[in-house]
Amino acid sequence: MTFFESLLALLAIAILLLQVSRRTAIPYPALLAAAGVALALIPGAPTIMLDPHTALALFIAPVLVDAAFDFPMVTVRQFWRPLVALAIIAVILTAGAVTWVGMEFAGLPFFAALALGAIVAPPDAAAATAILSSVKMPRRTVSLLKGESLLNDASALLLFSTAILIERHGGVDAALALQVSIAVPGGIALGLVLAWLMIRLQPLVSGTLSGNLLQFVMGFGAWILAERLGLSAVLCLVTFAMVLARTAGLTTPPRSRVHDFAVWETAVFLLNVLAFLLMGFQARTIIGAMGPDRLREAAWFACAVVACVIVVRVAWVLLYNRLTHRFHVLRGGYRPATFRQAILVGWCGMRGIVTLATAFALPGDFPQRDLIVLTAFAVVLGTLVLQGLTLSPMVRWLGLDGEDGLAIELTEARADMTEAALASLENQAGAAADHWRYGFEVRRQGLLPDGDGSAAEEKRRLGLAATQRKRERLEELRAAERVGPDAFLILQEELDFAELSLRTEEERRIEEL
Predict the structure, then answer these.
(1) Which of helix, strand or coil describes residue 315?
(2) How distant, in Å, are the alpha carbons of 40, 234, 382 from that of 362?
(3) How many beta carbons lie within 10 A of that of residue 168, not counting itself?
(4) N or C: fewer beta carbons within 10 Å in the chain?
């Protein structure tokens, strides 16, 4: 099989596994990881080697831009204390513990053990949120997991870069200390500059295919530029995307925004499939080159590292939870999380694409590279299987599968926006104003706690039925050759947007699965 044939096969399998995941309690990231390994065991599967610099830019840059765009800065300010505890302190503790395990049990030099610790330290929120989508979780917990995954990449990759530099420099010196110290503020500053540039370029290409291409070019380009300058590429991209997200709400045309979300979601999923495929190929090559004794030692070491990352995270999260109950300064003005919520957050330690990409990025001549890469793959598989398969049952066992607050938040926001719309029509007269005023009033009554929602529901039901009849009539017009292909596509898109506005949140969520 060629690489393209293997990729096509895994994509087909991924589609099937998504359907299996929908109908079972098995999370699709765990199924995808198993499929990547299984496909690599097929005789004739190709051997794929990826350039280290390409690996980080290819896999991490789009994932970071997509995640950072959906995570507002206000949430970072709101939860900065627990985010520091999870995204910085937890990463340092995990990396430190794995460094000790690597030096003590595998005889790795300090910089190599530190590189392994940095690779396996950051959990992946995409894996956790994919698994938790089947249950209702408190919004604060979900926000913390997403924010942690976004920010812990920066601290982990900074440690990873430091380990690589120590190996190149032969130790820690003044030049290395200076480079590391300017990486964080320099990356943030570069992200601000590139976001300012993007804000001015985007209106020129908005609504065109070049608009999507520009987003990817700027994302990849920002990563590469930050790396070349010795700055934190992660913080550069996170800053870049967050600044863009603040201005996109009022400046991006609706059609472009819908198109952008679809393109980025598909691209990130494709990269996850590709990463697990490459993981299987590289694992097969590494295992094939190891003798039985060496392979046995590597397996025991990998199991020790898997246990280490799980235990350190759970222990630190539970300790931090107790400290927030005792010291007000650690939680700010918010009520501390319950012990049950702390147990769940501690167990949400699945590793994913960031760990895989960082393992791919190790230079080919790095000491003990095969052992480090194989251990990183074992951590991804081990956490996805052990923690991923038990996460949903744990949510229910802890009694946290309840109201997530999202429905209330949506209702209150919709009511507020409807009031604003009605206020804008106060001084307007005429049939058009009366039409919109009536529609908004019906919607407002359906959103009020003591309001009558039957009229709004009846309006929605009739609207869906009428839209379906319009679709059928459009097909009849095309069959009668009264509507050409260009007009058909335009009218079909109009019906799509009209139907989307009538669908409930639950209906849209089911369609996205």
Answers:
(1) helix
(2) 21, 17, 21
(3) 10
(4) C
